[in-house]
């Protein structure tokens, strides 16, 4: 059974930084794209950033220049370094990965940015 386990969320002041991690475990033969989505209260889940197995990255316009996505294939882990955080970044952040040609989601980790 494949699982994605996130860590690194929390409370931070505006202008601060956080780094999220998401580790995949289980019976894994291949991992294609990995990424992060977020959902703020009363809003739809939205893409934050993705990275392919070839290290091609894609970012939402709202986080470009502030967030950096990376992955460690040996550790089956994807990271999201978040800098210059602002209150609009407050949301539950979900890890996403295509593993064994099937999509999986993590349980979510709360990120709260205070003004």
Which descriptors would you attach to this protein?
single chain; 115 residues; mainly beta; 7-stranded mixed beta sheet; 4-stranded antiparallel beta sheet; globular
Rounded to an integer in angstroms, the radius of gyration calculated over CA atoms is 13 Å
Largest sheet: 7 strands, mixed
What proportion strand?
A: over 45%
Kindly name the structural category.
mainly beta
Count of discrete alpha- or pi-helical segments spanning 4 or more residues: 0
Helix content: under 10%
Compute the number of strand runs. Answer: 11
What does the average pLDDT come to? 97
Kindly report how far apart the N and C termini lie: 40 Å
Describe what this molecule looks like in 3D.
This protein has 115 residues and is an all-beta fold. Helix content is 0%, strand content 57%. Strands 2, 4, 5, 6, 9, 10 and 11 form a seven-stranded mixed sheet that branches. The chain starts with a strand and ends with a strand. The model has no long low-confidence stretch (mean pLDDT 97).
């Amino acid at each position: 059974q494949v699982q994605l386990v996130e860590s690194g969320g929390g409370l931070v002041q505006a202008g601060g930084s956080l780094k999220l991690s998401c580790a995949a475990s289980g019976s894994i033969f291949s991992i294609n794209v990995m990424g992060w989505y977020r959902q703020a209260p009363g809003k739809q889940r939205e893409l934050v950033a993705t990275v392919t197995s070839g290290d091609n990255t894609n970012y939402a316009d709202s986080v470009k220049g502030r967030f950096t996505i990376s992955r460690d294939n040996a550790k089956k882990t994807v990271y999201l370094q978040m800098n210059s955080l602002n209150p609009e970044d407050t949301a539950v952040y979900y890890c996403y990965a295509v593993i064994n040609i099937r999509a999986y989601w993590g349980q979510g980790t709360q990120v709260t940015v205070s003004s």
